[in-house]
From TrEMBL:
Family indicated by similarity: Belongs to the GMC oxidoreductase family.
Name the record gives this protein: Glucose-methanol-choline oxidoreductase N-terminal domain-containing protein
Domain Glucose-methanol-choline oxidoreductase N-terminal intervals: 253-267
Keyword list, A-Z: Disulfide bond, FAD, Flavoprotein, Signal
Cysteine pairs bridged by disulfides in the record: C423-C478
Residues the entry annotates as binding FAD: V93, V206, W486, H487, G515, P526, Q527
UniProt entry tagged with the keyword rRNA-binding: no
Length: 583
C-alpha cells in the first residue's frame, strides 16, 4: 500500500485532466468507492491531505493521542471548535478518519440498514470486502478484560464475545489495528483498485464544482468538472468525460461535503449571496441536521501498569440511550489533555467567542495535567459513554469562501432532553462499573468516584462554562464537560439534500456518499459502515455501466506492473480480453 503507482502529489498533475468519475475526498468512503469504480471506469480521487504511509507518524496504536491533538498547519488532524465551545477534529489525510481515529470496527444496527433501504445481502458482502483488508480481532488484555467483566457484572447482558455485529449486551468489537499494533486505513482498500484506470492526487484542494447553466439542453444544472489547487497554489481543472453516466461524487465528510456544496453554489440562497457566491440551486437543507454524539468520561488512575489500548470492549445496554466504551494507557489518557492545556490560547483565539474558564481555572487545569503526567508510575484509562443518535442537531455555515477554512458548526449538544437523560444514564453506568468488584484491582480503593468527577471538572476539555453544581449534578456535569467522540454527521441528509441513490436533488451529475448523508450515527462507531457504504454504492453505480475495453487500455499499463500484488485480484483474461469485471 505504501507504493501505489497511481498515487501522486497534485503538483505533478497536468493543468487539465478528464475522467469518468471525479471523487472529492480520499477518505473513509472515498477510497473504497474509488477502488470499486475503477474496475469498470476511469476514476480521479482528489485528496486535500497527504499520505498516511509517508507523511505522518500515525501507523501505530500508541500514536493516537499525539495525532488527534496535533495542531500544526499541515497535520493529518485539522482542529476546529464548534460554536458550542467543544474541541473537535476533521481528517486531512488519505484514508480520512480511519487514519486518525481510535480504530473500533463494528457494523451498524440492523434497524439502520433497514431504515436506509439498503440491500441487506449486498451490505453483508460489502462489509466482508472491507474486512478482508482492514479489520481484525483485538488482543484483549487486563484493562479491557476488567471493563468487560464489570459491564457483565452490572447487568449489561448478555456477553456476546467477539463479533462485528451490533448486538445488545457486552461485546468485543473489531479493530483496524493488527496484532502488531499497526493501523490499517481505508487507504489500504486501494489495493483493490485497478491501476489502469485510477489516479489519486494528494494535497489537491477542491475549491468548487463546475455546473452547466440550466437551459434547453440541460433542464437542470449539471456537474461537469471541478477546480482544484495543488500545494503550490497552482489552479487546475478536472472534467468529466462526455457521458451522461459520469459523475462528480462528494466524499469529503460531514464538514467538507456541505461546505463544498455551498462554495459551489448549492445551499441557502441568502447565505450564499452574503458571501458573494453565485447561486446554482437554492437548497436550504444543505448544512442542516448537523449532529455530534456527545461523549462524557471519567479518567481512572490505576495502581498497576495497564496496556495501551484503544476501543475494544463496548457495552450496549438494551434499556438505555447510551453506549459504554473504554481505552487505557498513560500516553492516551493525558496526550489530549496536555495538548489542550498547551495550546489553549491558540484554541481560544480560533474560537472567536468568550470562554468562561478564568485564568485561575486554566492555571489549575494545567497544574492538574502536569502533576499527573509527571508521575511516571501512574497508569490508568478512560471509561466513556456516548449518547445514541443523537436527537439534538444544529447547522453548518460558511465563514469564508476558502475551502481551507473551517466552517462555523453548531451541534446543539443536549438540546433534546432525551440526549441529556442518555448521558446521565451512561454516567451512572460508568460509576457502577468503577465500583464493581471485578474492576477493583485496577483502581485506587482510597480514591472515590467524586474525586474522579472533580478531576474532569479541572481539565480544560472544552470552552464551556463550569458550574458549581456540576460536581454534584450529573446533568450539569454532562453539559459542562461534554466532548466529541468524532462521530459527527449530517449536512447533506438523505431525503432532504440527496435521494435514496445519494444523487443531489435538483441537479444532475452529482452525488454525495459519506457520513454527511446520515440521519444518525450507525451503531457504536460509524467507520465500518462508512467504508461499507463506499463499496456498496460503487457496486450499485457500476451495475449500469457498459464493460471497459481492456484491450484499448493495454498500452497504458507497463508490463512490470502486472507482477505487482495489487493486481492479484484481477483475472488475467479480463485484463487481456475486455470482459466486464464483476463488482
Amino acid at each position: 500500500a505504501q507504493h501505489f503507482p497511481f498515487v501522486h502529489d497534485a503538483t505533478v498533475a497536468p493543468p487539465v485532466v478528464y475522467f469518468d468519475y471525479i471523487i472529492i475526498g480520499g477518505g473513509t468512503a472515498g477510497c473504497p468507492l474509488a477502488a470499486t469504480l475503477s474496475q469498470n471506469a476511469t476514476v480521479l480521487v482528489l485528496e486535500r491531505g497527504g499520505s498516511p504511509y509517508r507523511d505522518f507518524n500515525i501507523t501505530n496504536v500508541g500514536n493516537f493521542g499525539s495525532t488527534i491533538s496535533d495542531t500544526s498547519p499541515h497535520s493529518a488532524s485539522q482542529i476546529f471548535i464548534s460554536e458550542d465551545g467543544v474541541y473537535n477534529t476533521r481528517a486531512r489525510v488519505l484514508g480520512g478518519g480511519s487514519a486518525i481515529n481510535a480504530g473500533f470496527y463494528s457494523h451498524a444496527e440492523p434497524e439502520f440498514v433497514r431504515d436506509a433501504g439498503w440491500d441487506e445481502d449486498l451490505v453483508r458482502r460489502s462489509y466482508d470486502w472491507v474486512e478482508s483488508k482492514v479489520a481484525f480481532e483485538p488482543q484483549v488484555k487486563q484493562w479491557q478484560s476488567a471493563v468487560r467483566d464489570a459491564l457483565v457484572e452490572i447487568g449489561v447482558l448478555p456477553y456476546n464475545g467477539f463479533t462485528y455485529n451490533h448486538v445488545d449486551g457486552t461485546k468485543i468489537g473489531g479493530t483496524i489495528f493488527d496484532d502488531q499494533g499497526h493501523r490499517h486505513t481505508a487507504a489500504d482498500l486501494l489495493e483493490y483498485a485497478n491501476p489502469l484506470t485510477v489516479k489519486v492526487y494528494l494535497h489537491a484542494t477542491v475549491s468548487r464544482i463546475l455546473f452547466t447553466n440550466k437551459g434547453r439542453q440541460w433542464p437542470k444544472p449539471r456537474a461537469y468538472g471541478v477546480v482544484f489547487e495543488d500545494a503550490l497554489g497552482i489552479r487546475k481543472r478536472a472534467f468529466l468525460r462526455p457521458n451522461p453516466q459520469n459523475e462528480v461524487i462528494l466524499t469529503a465528510g460531514a464538514l467538507g461535503s456541505p461546505q463544498l456544496m455551498m462554495l459551489s453554489g448549492i445551499g441557502p440562497a441568502l447565505h450564499l449571496k452574503s458571501h458573494g457566491i453565485h447561486v446554482v440551486l437554492d437548497q436550504p437543507n444543505v448544512g442542516q441536521g448537523m449532529a455530534d454524539n456527545p461523549m462524557n468520561l471519567l479518567y481512572v488512575p490505576s495502581p498497576v501498569p495497564v496496556e495501551i489500548s484503544l476501543i475494544q470492549v463496548v457495552g450496549i445496554p438494551s434499556n438505555q440511550n447510551t453506549y459504554i466504551e473504554t481505552a487505557s494507557g498513560l500516553s492516551f489518557a493525558y496526550s489530549w489533555a496536555q495538548g489542550f492545556a498547551r495550546d489553549y490560547v491558540t484554541f481560544f483565539n480560533q474560537s472567536g467567542k468568550p470562554s468562561s474558564l478564568t485564568a485561575e481555572t486554566m492555571a489549575r487545569a494545567i497544574d492538574t495535567v502536569h502533576a499527573y503526567a509527571a508521575n511516571t508510575s501512574l497508569k490508568g484509562g478512560v471509561i466513556l459513554e456516548k449518547v445514541r443518535g443523537p436527537l439534538s442537531s444544529g447547522d453548518l455555515k460558511l465563514r469564508s469562501r476558502s475551502p481551507r477554512d473551517n466552517p462555523a458548526v453548531t451541534f446543539n449538544y443536549f438540546k433534546d432532553p432525551q440526549d441529556l437523560r442518555g448521558c446521565v444514564e451512561g454516567m451512572r453506568s460508568i460509576i457502577n462499573l468503577i465500583n464493581a468488584p471485578s474492576f477493583a484491582r485496577l483502581r485506587y480503593a482510597h480514591l472515590p468516584v467524586q474525586a474522579l468527577v472533580d478531576l474532569m471538572l479541572n481539565l480544560p476539555v472544552n470552552l464551556r462554562p463550569r458550574h458549581v453544581s456540576s460536581s454534584i449534578s450529573l446533568e450539569q456535569f454532562c453539559i459542562d464537560t461534554v466532548m466529541t467522540i468524532w462521530h459527527y454527521h449530517g449536512g447533506c441528509q438523505v431525503g432532504k439534500v440527496v435521494d435514496q441513490d445519494y444523487r443531489v436533488v435538483g441537479v444532475d451529475g452529482l452525488r454525495v456518499i459519506d457520513g454527511s448523508t446520515f440521519l444518525k450515527s450507525p451503531g457504536t462507531n460509524p467507520q465500518a459502515t462508512v467504508m461499507m457504504l463506499g463499496r456498496y454504492m460503487g457496486t450499485r453505480i457500476l451495475q449500469g455501466r457498459p464493460p471497459v475495453n481492456w484491450r484499448r487500455l493495454q498500452g497504458r499499463f507497463p508490463a512490470s506492473w502486472r507482477r505487482r500484488p495489487w493486481l492479484s485480484h484481477i483475472p488475467r483474461k479480463n485484463m487481456q480480453g475486455g470482459e466486464k469485471i464483476k463488482p
